[in-house]
Design brief:
By secondary structure, this protein is α/β, with parallel strands linked by helices. The protein is 37% helix and 16% strand.
Amino acid sequence: MVLKDKHIFVVEDDAMNLAVIRTILKRAGAAVPFDHWGDTTLNRILSYPFKIDAILLDIMLPNQISGYDIFDAIRTTPELQNIPIIAVTASDPDIEMNKARAKGFDGYISKPLDRVKFAYQISAVINGQEIWGE
């Protein structure tokens, strides 16, 4: 199991996408805490009782908050600065991938997800590689 004993925090507002992401990651051995809306993400991450190995952020979220807003909040929190953050989004990659790279994300994975490659992509980022739309 490629993600055995890893803790991958997911921020995703779409219930179907969240279910797909959680199923793939759990089958790969990961624990998958999550937040739907983004407005409570920072508190949930800080109160999570285990070390988080990566954070997956949807870019488009409701309530006038974006994955970029959450990214900024995470990166300005000292104890979270070294956690890899990956954009996982259906946004137009020709626009958003460059924005995510410039912002400092550690990777970008487009939806729909490749169910075979997805867990390996997350594992690669955890191990220091960058994934940009592969």
